[in-house]
Design brief:
By secondary structure, the chain is of the alpha+beta class. Among the domains are: about 1-75, Ribosomal Protein S8, Chain: A, domain 1, CATH 3.30.1370; about 185-280, RNA 3'-terminal phosphate cyclase, insert domain (Dihydrodipicolinate Reductase, domain 2); about 285-345, 2-Layer Sandwich (Ribosomal Protein S8, Chain: A, domain 1). The protein is built from 8 helices and 18 strands. It has helices at about 10-20, 40-55, 90-100, 125-135, 200-210, 260-280, 290-295, 310-325, and strands at about 5, 25-30, 55, 60, 70, 75, 80-85, 110-115, 145-150, 160-165, 175, 185-195, 220-225, 235-245, 250-255, 300-305, 330-335, 340-345. The strands form 5 sheets. Strands 1-2-5-4 form a 4-stranded mixed sheet, with helices on one face. Strands 7-8-10-9 form a 4-stranded mixed sheet, covered by helices on one side. A hairpin with a 4-residue loop joins strand 14 (about 235-245) and strand 15 (about 250-255). The chain is globular. About 45% of the residues are buried.
């Protein structure tokens, strides 16, 4: 049964859900009303990545690039190298890989090159992926995931390199994550690439001064990259992670832009982290989709999670999950904390590519 879609929105979600469910999809009218119709380069790059980690997938794109037919193959994983381009960051591809890799025939070892931290914040950065996303995935029984940042790559030229190693599992554990706890400490990394390391100290001092008004345990590391590890373009940024008493993580990251002061970056990043904490929940906005997807793919048992404000990206994911897997979430608002408790019954997804464990 072929699933039909229209438009370019949530392209990555549809490709990932199609690969996991085994349902072919047709996407029509991709940016037909824009000056440059059809697939963007990063979407075509995602399809090439799917072709590398699967066996037997079929991809058909029409001449104008406005219609795509995708028939998924069997996930084989293996050792791959992929150039992510200069339009979207490495995080765009990492999100797809980490959802698919545990269900492959072989363990995955992926070397991705491109932009590691982007100014637009559209995709999760490599720092937050390492410090927040991977610890969250441990709750589902995914251990021994290794992630290394070999080189940073700032826009526009990139030049960064990361290596993701992910083992395979038979199935995932159900999740019960209701108690968000209280903030006990904040950790951060202020990094610079091909710039004066004094910039990262200015960012750190301003941010720490703001956060110390609310929590006493604040430590921000400074990380200076030079030579081959610094990529092709200069840049600096700050990533912050707040840990709660129950082991939950809330994070935010921002990169410095041209003609902006490092102090402004530190001050704004601290305030945005406080805004994320204010929204409540056991996960931050950038990690909602990972948790909900793994809850659906978990064993046939009830999973629960407390989430703050649902992002538009997460809402569209819930719709795609219903379309591909037939799983719906029970959403109960909690007026007292202004959060919501999402409950679902896992579909019992099993790794069919690997016959024996």
């Amino acid at each position: 049964m072929v699933v039909h879609f229209e438009g370019a929105s949530n392209f990555r979600q549809r490709i990932v859900c199609s690969t996991l469910s085994g349902k072919p999809i047709i996407i029509k009218n991709i940016r037909t009303n824009q000056k440059t119709p059809g697939l963007k380069d990063y979407e075509a790059s995602l399809l090439r990545l799917m072709d590398k980690i699967t066996n037997g997938c079929k991809i058909e794109i029409d001449v104008t690039g406005t219609t795509v037919f995708y028939k998924p193959g069997i996930l084989t994983n293996g050792k791959i190298t992929h150039d992510c381009g200069k339009t979207r960051s490495v995080g765009y591809f990492l999100e797809a890989l980490v959802m698919l890799a545990p269900f492959g025939k072989n363990p995955l070892s992926a070397t991705l090159t491109g932009i590691t931290n982007h100014t637009d914040n559209l995709d999760i950065s490599v720092d937050l992926f390492r410090t927040v996303t991977l610890p969250n995935l441990l709750r589902f029984g995914l251990s021994d995931i290794d992630f290394k940042i070999k080189a940073r790559g700032a826009p526009p030229e990139g030049g960064g390199m990361v290596i993701l190693s992910c083992p395979i599992v038979k199935n995932l554990k159900p999740l019960q994550l209701i108690d968000s706890g209280l903030i006990k400490r904040v950790r951060g990394i202020a990094y610079t690439s091909r710039m004066n390391p004094v910039v990262s100290n200015r960012v750190k001092d301003q941010c720490k001064g703001e956060l110390l008004k609310y929590v006493s345990d604040v430590f921000i590391y400074t990380d200076h990259y030079k030579g081959k590890e610094s990529g092709q373009s200069p840049g600096y940024g700050l990533s912050l992670v707040a840990e709660t008493t129950t082991g939950c993580f809330v994070s935010y990251e921002q990169m410095g832009e041209a003609q902006s002061l490092p102090e402004d970056l530190g001050d704004n990043c601290a305030k945005m982290l406080l805004h994320e904490i204010l929204q409540g929940g056991c996960v931050d906005t950038s990690n909602q989709s990972f948790m909900l997807m793994y809850m659906v793919l978990g064993s046939e048992d009830i999973s629960k999670i407390r989430i703050g404000k649902l992002s538009p990206y997460t809402i569209s994911l819930l719709r795609n999950i219903k379309e591909f897997f037939g799983v719906t979430f029970d959403i109960k608002p909690d007026p007292e904390t202004k959060t919501s408790i999402l409950t679902c019954f896992g579909c019992g997804f099993k790794n069919l590519a690997k016959q024996s464990f």
